[in-house]
Fold each of these.
Amino acid sequence: MNDPAKSHRRLCLTVRGAVQGVGFRPFIFRLATQNNLGGWIQNTPQGALIEVEGSPQHLDAFVEQLQREAPAVAVIHRIESTQMEALGCTTFAIRDSSQAGPRAAWIMPDLATCSDCVREIFDPRDRRYRYPFLNCTLCGPRFSIVERLPYDRPNTSMRQFRLCADCEREYHDPHDRRFHAQPIACAACGPRLQLCNDSKTVRADGDPALLQAPHAIRDGAIVAMKGLGGFQLLVDARNDEAMRRLRERKGREEKPFALMYLSAAAASVDVEISPDEGRLLAARQAPIVLLRRHGGGQIAPAVAPGNPYLGVMLSYTPLHHLLMADLGFPVVATSGNRSDEPMAINDADAFDRLAGIADLFLTHDRPIVRPMDDSVCRIVLGREQVLRRARGYAPLPITLDRSMPPLLAVGGHLKNTVAVSVGNDVYLSQHVGDL
């Protein structure tokens, strides 16, 4: 009989990059199981640490598939491999995260709602039907909720929501796409909506709040909505009187406002969309894309006075999808602040600083750890050009070809962005704004 210690090999793999919060551990679990390998994986402050053992041919297949078939949203920067003595391990496990060592793992940006989750929120047979905070390992909040590394639920602002039995089962099922999805939630155990007036009086909770908000926007109200990385001000983009009222209250005289549509097809009524621009609109970063406007169209003149371009984005959270589907027309979705002030990210701040601007407040009880504005991009000569780097892009680093000493760059006074160097990586913050 062959001795496993002689016929098997064991590899220790350190995977560096954006491999936390992207379904990487479940992917490795399934890949190891398919290849009849034993061992374990755990998140560390440096990325992901894997020990895996089995026959040489199965190990070779595992490493090849790891690089070729990793989750689409993962970013593997490099893999460091060390051969070890086989231990005879035949089962594979996901271990609790380690806190040891320097913190160098890449944190994933917030990702737009994936197509599977969109289907669920509009499926009356699904238990998350019309639930505005669903997500999975391929989408949802990341950077806006994480407080420290490694990226695990106790290290995020979701720790206050105790999982119900159904979510607990999905979280621990290796065959479920919510296996180890850290922000997992449902209506029974997750965040809830509230609709309040400007005197903080609650008008509706849960789905009734979600039903009343579109009616108010349709009637010309300015609604402050707590989104992914802060409050947004939502207004009917066809209503010129409501737009002028928003400009007056916000103190924004002529600067264009960004628009939100449910789909690219809906946006094509008002703007020209090339194939490259369509791909950028639908990307998982879901940025605002500058697009040339059609003559005429349904957009009120006060949205972008005299400007041949409109800034367009598509719904990127379940809450946006539900609101836009109920409305059936484009809205202005602009930062929840007065002109040149920071964006409000919590209820107390919003009620204080947006008083006199918003008529209603659509808020929820999931804390936002850091403000995250919308990114702005355009297509130039067939290539993507990022004009404002924030949600969807930050804080992924730029990797240099040489190691740098620890440096801090604080950027300019206007349109501020902070950069920090760590070895070969330069980490760029989200767009901070006017200092």
Amino acid sequence: EAAAARLAVSELRAALDRLARAEWARRDRLQSLALEERSWKKREEQSLAERALYAERRAALEAEGRALAERPAAIGEESARLGARLAERSGNRERAQAALGRGEEAFAASLDALRVAEEALAETRERRARAKALCESAESALSRVAREIDERFAGAPDPLAGGGDESLPEESEVKARLERLTQARAALGAVNLAALGESAEVASEIARLEREQGELAAAIQRLRRGIRTIEEEGARRLSAAFASVNTHFAAIFARLFAGGRAHLEMVAEEDPLAPGLEIMASPPGKRLQALSLLSGGEQALTALALLFAVFLTNPAPVCVLDEVEAALDDANVVRFCDLVEEIAGAAGTRFLVVTHNPLTMARVDRLYGVTMLERGVSRLLSVDLARAARLRQTA
């Protein structure tokens, strides 16, 4: 009986152990089910939050789509307006160039007329000097004859013809006097009866040339004032553009190099419209020096900073960049891509980048390439990376 009782007790203990194990298994299962229930509730909450987020993104994308659908018309209007302004300014420039050409032609013609007038004036002065010399020579000869008459006949030439027969000299004396007078008259030369008329014509020509000279001088002064005004306006615009480019260049240089400083300097400033340009740069950890003393990669990055500075001073709707980051390492290529994306977002410029760098190709919105699936047959391949990224986010 004791053995049977022990056997029964052992069986009951075994059954009790099985029941205890079953109870622990059920408790573990209940705990597992509770954990799963909390996990599913958490996933449900996350799903609801993601659903609300996707709904907001969908609404934002629809609004962006509507805004983008309206942009072509606005861009078309802006393009038409800019085209009209460009045509107007082109017309103004052509008219200004035509006016400048006419002014230069008038100035050249004025110079030619002034040279001809100066030559005519010199010739007239020479003729006047010759006439004055001839007149002085005639007056001297007349005075000499009067003195000879006074010496020989003791009287003036005019009263000699009024005397009687008793006062007349001998025939030999008269013949000798006649011969002397004939020789003296021959020495005087031919009398120019048109000298007074020619003198009046020369005086009139001189007055006309002096008036033309005054008009030419006034025209030259006006032309010089116009040229000075144009030079001052050109110098002012050049200074303003240089200041803007220098400001953008310093900011972009510090952005691309993650520090440092740089600026532009004008050389040979005595001619403000044709100065030289010196690029001074100081990458992080280096002293300020000229561009030619930097390394190849630093020169390329500095040139990119100057290129974007000029572009930001006068931005355009489209910009083409051809292998500009070829000399840069990966870190600088990333900075270059960040700068291009920032400028594209701020200025609304579409960048067309020709490149073989995989980092640059991974950052673009749309990728175009040429592939050769068959030997000798090229094919254009286009991949919309921005759309693929959006599809991946919504998947």
Amino acid sequence: MILPLIFLVTLMSGCSADSDCKFDHPTADASTIPRGLGVNIHFTNPQPGEIKMIAGAGFRWVRMDFKWDVTERERGRYDFADYDRLVKALDQYHIRALFILDYGNPLYDGNPPRTALARQAFARWASAAAKHFSNRGIMWEIYNEPNQPMFWPTGPQVSEYVDLALTVGRAFRAEVPNEQLIGPGVSGIDFSFLETCFRAGLLDYWSGVSVHPYRKTDPETAALEYCRLRKLIQSYRTRSDSSGVATNSGFPDKEIPIISSEWGYSTAWRGMTEEKQAARLSRELLTNTANGIPISIWYDWRDDGSAPSDAEHHFGLVRNTYQADRDQAYEPKPAYFAAKTFSDYLNGYIYEQRLAVGRDDDYVLVFRNSSSRRFAAWTTSNTTHRIDIPMDGGEFRVIRHTGESAGSASSGPAGLSIEVSTQPVYFGRAN
């Protein structure tokens, strides 16, 4: 049976005005960490020990291209064997797949699918794939960055994408109505592209709106964009009429979450060291969690190469050389340990609130489980400084975002005094 997507039906209150677009966005049915943590991969045949290492960092999703031209080499004949192998490997570690339905196919009109014939063929292939993997908890994303010339080589045309996505949406509704379809996987948060999709009725078919919030600035800056996008989605929300047909009615019967399906920081960017990448990863995940983003996919799992100035070669959590004779299949970078620390330390916790500590650039987030609370703290200021956090007396253990102990701290009359920098720390009461 399909695994329940509890975190895709969170009740999210809207922002009534731009001034309401705050950093934190608590949800009524928050996702338990690390259920929504994922990573992008570029293979269907994992190396021995590789999926174990991905699972060991706490990842519960992998995102991977599901390529049309690879799986339909003869018209109407589909070969999903490579993806069967990948899904089997993921199943062993209870990792779910987010497959991207992409790109063109020379059997039809090339890349991208632009004609009615190609769109119908793409939709038949997509629904056949979803039917083949039905009831496996797989999520399907309709295309990757269709607003970028790299992936829509004829020049991005939102109308062409809409035609394709509507054709696929209708095919899913008819053939595999219980499978999860999301889109459009845009580069950045392209409001013009997104609103055109919503206006065309694509929210009637999608279980989530996927975006790639890349930026070279602080990850916390995504919060205002998330709020703006959430308000835009709400303005186009759908419900079913008495006949069961979804309509763009604007009624709040259907909540459609924002999914961060690709986002990372390359250490080839100017000033982006591996240590800074690790801190950005932690802050990206914390920002997404606090803003009600149920799935966060980090880009990328492995470095794609070793050319010093090639940004695409340096998004990875691990280096790109396979280590056949080592316990770990790939050499971890600091960002790997940042992901692992986030998932391990906050395992089983949900986001509760952000504490006000006097400065807008200081962040203290509270997470809770059934019996205790844990905290994350950092600042976007380039100046390391101390903050006082209102807290009852007691001893607290502090760890760095990459897992090393940072000692302990005691709460006094002024609360708990913690030193914050651009590198987050986690802390909780000592038992």
